[in-house]
Amino acid sequence: MTETLKPHPLVELRGITKHFGEGQTRVYALRGISMTVLSGEVVGLLGPSGSGKTTLLNVIGAIIAPNEGWMRLDGEVAYDNRWLRRDLRRLRLEKIGFIFQNHNLLSFLNAIDNVALVLQLAGLPREECTRRAMELLDYLEVGHRKHAMPSQLSGGEAQRVAIARALANRPRIILADEPTAALDSVRAGIVMDLLRKVAVEQQAAIVAVTHDEKIFDRFDRIFRLRDGVLAGAEEQA
Ligand code: ADP
Ligand code: MG
């Protein structure tokens, strides 16, 4: 139905400010950030080192608290000068998927168990975890590597397993910090294609921090941060 595919806001930030430290040593990481990301969108977050990209991703992911502002995630006001939810862990589990630069897979678990673990933590029965983990690995075209340990996976395979893991709890918001930094251009392209597929097919919003010029043209829009301030979003061609 076209109605359900109509883009709608999944990430909405208004006047988000974050500082670290106090007094003389206070550092402003984010200064009055306002932005909106819609379902089905893949947006890039660019800016020099220290400009606040990781802090912004961590605020959206409810990992660190801002100092002021307002934030709605997937239709729910999560922050309004304070967290409106006490169970932030559950909020993250319900709404957010994280992908890191270096995949962060657990070295002592094989590919399928890395994905299944998230489902176990969410309380699914064991057989259901394995079944869904397999389905996710297949979806990310890395099912044939299910028994491989992280050390046996190539960089691209490991990142696809990490994306499968990020999708395990069916989040609508996927946050990625430099997801292709460790990959060559072919594998970076494959990862971006998969993120695009996720955005379109799961109607998710994807926010990816990147320095990687070889993927700039893969974003719908690019937000630029400088000293904690967001320049207007630019539409990509
Ligand atoms: P980026 O990811 O764009 O490199 P960050 O979000 O990591 O930037 O950092 C933005 C600013 O906030 C920097 O000045 C950084 O030193 C500071 N900062 C980030 N995290 C902390 C922290 N936990 N404690 C103190 N300062 C921090
Ligand atoms: Mg960073």
Spans of at least 5 consecutive residues whose pLDDT stays below 50 are none
Fraction in helix: 25-40%
What is the number of helical segments per DSSP (H or I, 4+ residues)? 7
The termini sit apart by 27 Å
Average pLDDT figure: 91
User: CATH homologous superfamily - what is it?
Assistant: P-loop containing nucleotide triphosphate hydrolases
Derived structural class: alpha/beta
Shape: globular
CATH class equals Alpha Beta
Describe this structure in words.
This protein has 237 residues and is of the alpha/beta class. The protein has one domain: Rossmann fold (3-Layer(aba) Sandwich). The protein is built from seven helices and eleven strands. The strands form two sheets. Strands 3, 6, 7, 8, 9, 10 and 11 form a seven-stranded mixed beta sheet that branches. It has a four-stranded antiparallel beta sheet with strand order 2-1-4-5, with helices on one face. Strand 4 and strand 5 form a beta hairpin. It binds adenosine-5'-diphosphate and magnesium ion. Adenosine-5'-diphosphate binds next to strand 2 and helix 2.
Overview features:
binds adenosine-5'-diphosphate, Rossmann fold, single chain, seven-stranded mixed beta sheet, four-stranded antiparallel beta sheet, binds magnesium ion, 7 helices, 27% strand, alpha/beta, 237 residues
In brief:
By secondary structure, this protein is of the alpha/beta class.
